[in-house]
UniProtKB/TrEMBL annotation:
The chain crosses the membrane at residues 12-31, 37-57, 78-106, 118-144, 153-173, 185-204. Keywords: Membrane, Transmembrane, Transmembrane helix. This is ABC-2 transporter permease. The keyword Transmembrane applies.
Amino acid sequence: MKSLIIKDVYNILHNMKSLFLMLFVFLFLILPKGGAAAYAITCCILCAMMIVTTFSFDENAKWEKYAMVMPVSRKDLVLSKFVVLLFFCIFGMVFGGILGIAGSTIMGKFHIFSLTEWLELLCVCLAGMVISFFLGSMVIPLLFRFGAEKARALMLAAFLLPVLLCSGLYFLLRSLGVILTDTVILTLICASPLVLILWTAVMYRISLRIFKNTEF
């Protein structure tokens, strides 16, 4: 599986110039108003979307057909996509955090000697990575089922659905008089890794089933 991961990372390096350009453009668009936190989350999501590009490269090279005649198991091929997605999310978190801190410090919106601001930004960066991996793992089954081009049209719906569900749940709880206290929020944050692991396992199983049923 290591070779599969290296393949995707190596292929995506050829597209890094456009990615960096896009990230720098969003730096000037988001940082002045949203600050380092908003920019870090944006970077995580944009980098997570690069998983679609890896599928596009595979389709153009007819890679999956070639891989099936090699000693590569379908389980490893599917799992490698989730590992690559995790790498992309981590890269987006680190890149967005560093650049966001530098830019916010220059603009006077971030105080490097404030421990509170560092902890808040760290929590936001981790939350951004979790959210981007959650959304990206939702797209991977669509990519295996419909291919990169068709999945691009469905990706927006896949991203909006959990946002709408969370918003609806929030307004429902508020209408019922349930207040999201700091304790409740902290509990949700602590439970998020377990939820993410379970969610990833489900998406992996769905992706593997789709790929196993695919004829080449």
